[in-house]
Amino acid sequence: MTLRSSFRALWRSVSGVAMTEFALGAPVLMFAGLYGVEEANFVLVNMKINQLATHLADNASRIGDPSQLKSRRVYESDLTDVIVGAQIQAGKSVNIYKYGRVFISSLEVNDGGQQYIHWQRCRGAKAATSSYGDQGSSVDGMGPASTRITAEPGDAVIFVEVRYTYQPLITGAVIPNREIKAIAAFNVRDNRDLTQIYQRDPANPDPVQDCTSYRGEVTINSSGAVS
Q: Strand 100-109's sheet: what is its strand order?
């Protein structure tokens, strides 16, 4: 076979067309697939964070020591139980307290008729502060400016804010470490003692989930103590 005929045969050959097309198209298909998987995971995590905020607000609005003789008292251990429950519900895949922070606030009305945050409990290692106020601060309400939530005199609203840094499932090149925010609010159930958060055993107080520390995942030791 002459050199000319060899080039002529190579020019007419189509045996490698499919392989060439695959080589050119594979990177595009792979990127599209990765993008779709990452976007789906982001939507799923977003939904979990929003459900978590609702779960926290609902549970925190129900807690209290039931009594027929006096208003329900809320104890520090009750709030810790709510926080532990959120960690269990969110699951290991989200790891809410490692990559996020939760704010549980009791919005009430003081003696002067002003809305204020009576108490606030937090958990999470994320370096973030509440977007709507801190414990003891006077506010016009809580939530977005267009839809402020307010409490009625003698009543309280449990307002929950969750801030979470999304952790990419595959790579941060598709969706960077975007922050997910969620809020939820519920009026307290029944007649609650709003004077303070109590300790079941003042001589051996339960830990306070205060907002001055940035603690990650809740751990429970063999004796049942929470840290």
A: 115-123, 100-109, 157-165, 179-187
Q: How many Cβ atoms from other residues are within 10 Å of residue 56's Cβ?
A: 26
Q: Does residue 57 belong to any structural domain of this protein?
A: yes
Q: Which two tokens stand for residue 162?
A: 């969750």
pTM: 0.85
136 inside domain:
yes
> Are residues 84 and 90 in contact, defined by beta-carbon separation less than 8 angstroms?
no
Dihedral angle of Cα 170, 174, 176, 178, to the nearest 10 degrees: -90
Report the pLDDT value the prediction gives residue 15, as an integer from 0 to 100: 64
- The count of residues in the chain is 227
151 with 194: CB under 8 angstroms? no
pLDDT at 166: 95
Residue 60 lies in a domain: yes
Could you tell me which of 102, 85, 123 has the C-alpha nearest to residue 213?
123
Query: What's at 9, amino acid-wise?
Result: A
User: Mean pLDDT per 10-residue run, the chain (227 residues)?
Assistant: 68 64 66 80 95 97 80 93 94 93 98 97 96 96 94 97 93 80 95 94 94 90 68
DSSP line for 84-124: HHHHHHH-TTT-HHHHEEEEEEEEEE-TTS-EEEEEEEEE-
DSSP letter, residue 225 = -
In a domain, 193, yes or no: no
Q: What does the pLDDT look like over 95-112, one tens digit per residue?
A: 999 999 999 999 999 999
